[in-house]
Amino acid sequence: MTAEPLMRMRLRVEQDIFVVRQLGREVARAVGLESQDQTRMATALSEVGRVLLASGRDTDVAFSIEPIGVPTLLVTMAQPGAGTAIRLAGQLQLVGRLVDTMEVDDGSSGTVVRMARRLPSGAPRLTPDRMDEIRDGLTQHVPGTPLDELAVQNQQLITALDEVRAQRDDLARLNAELEETNRGVMALYNQLSQELEETNRGVVALYAELDEKSAQLRAASEAKSRFLANVSHELRAPVTAIIGLGRLLTDSGSDELTSEQARQVDLIRTSASDLLTLVNDLLDLAKAEAGRIEPNWSEVDLKAMFGQLRGTLRPMVTRPEVELVVDEPTLPVLRSDEVLLAQVLRNLLTNALKFTETGSVRLSVRPIDGDAEFVVADTGTGIPPELQERIFEEFYQVPGSKPVSGKGTGLGLPYARRLAGILGGGLRVDSAPGEGSTFTLRLPITS
């Protein structure tokens, strides 16, 4: 809803066109429009007034401010009679470019032309008191003669011509600078094209070399996997036989051994068991590297799995200073491979128990952002930050670290990370020397 008009007048004769032009410029100046916008508004009013006056009927002109949203100067020119809106809209099409919006409508009381020009953001605030001051000033405004208005128009035309001339000179200067820049750009483009062509040839040669090296690496990796698999497979039988023979020698049905012989046989059996563990780890790792492990997806009961891990690993806790804690899972069911998931968790728990002298080893699981996070936290010796990625390399063991119980092969963590990848997740570690380690296995809840 618009406020009370700032000014009203009526177009009756041709001289009123000069008056409405002057009045439009004064209103535009008073409400804060810039000089060029004042000229545009005055020119639009005079042109619309000339077209409407040509019909021979009086025209009411009202100036007002639209205060809602962006303050806008509105000019309404109403003329009695109907059916002329379409014709007027065609005649005033070019005039509409001088203002922000122009509407020509046929109403019940006649034809109405509405023009609007938004006030700039820096215009003075139009408070009610300021609006009253503008009304008083416009009431006291004395229109000049047509000659005065013609002089003002000429001055505005001269100003506009000066601005056009200055813009033309600026444009000519910019064109000269642009032409000079274009010549430099073309020279630089030609130079860069030559350098790029040479670089491309080098890149192509480099890619060819990289492809060759990649093929060699793949072949070496496949050969290593085949070697590990074959050697591991061939070693299992004799190692198993050694363990069996050692068991027979110490069996109650065999000839009794001396204490020294019994000690030597126990040493052989222990060494053979350690060797069999290493062989099995090598075989599992070779299978994972060769991509021969396919997950068997099913609904895994985590509560039952945690109970089984608690039972099978409790015999490894041989020191009263260490406590194995398996929390009740807050996530009851997970779609995964039960065997592979249990293998990863077993490796993590076994590794934690080996390097924890006092305190606890804790297993827990929680849902987070659509995934499941299995956490194995211990209070062991900890791992320096710069070595936390190296522990996932085959056969690598942290320098100076000694397992409290059992022996490590350096293959459990690499195998666990590979299985985590096969299950569609990842395995990371957070640790600090003297503060223990936390291994986090993150898997999708649904595969």
Task: Give structural notes.
By secondary structure, this protein is α+β, with helices and mostly antiparallel strands. The protein has 3 domains: 7-144, Histidine kinase-like ATPase, C-terminal domain (Heat Shock Protein 90, 2-Layer Sandwich); 175-292, Signal transduction histidine kinase, dimerisation/phosphotransfer (DHp) domain (Helix Hairpins); 298-444, 2-Layer Sandwich (Heat Shock Protein 90), CATH 3.30.565. Helix content is 51%, strand content 18%. The protein contains 9 helices and 12 strands. The protein has helices spanning 15-31, 35-53, 85-91, 128-139, 146-249, 259-289, 302-313, 338-354, 412-422; strands at 7-11, 59-66, 72-79, 101-107, 110-118, 298-301, 322-326, 333-336, 359-368, 371-378, 426-431, 437-444. The strands form 3 sheets. A 5-stranded antiparallel beta sheet has the order 1-2-3-5-4. Helix 1 (15-31) packs antiparallel against helix 2 (35-53) and helix 6 (259-289) packs parallel to helix 9 (412-422). The longest helix has 104 residues, at 146-249. The radius of gyration is 46 Å and the shape is elongated. The protein starts with 6 loop residues before the first strand and ends with a strand. The mean pLDDT is 82.
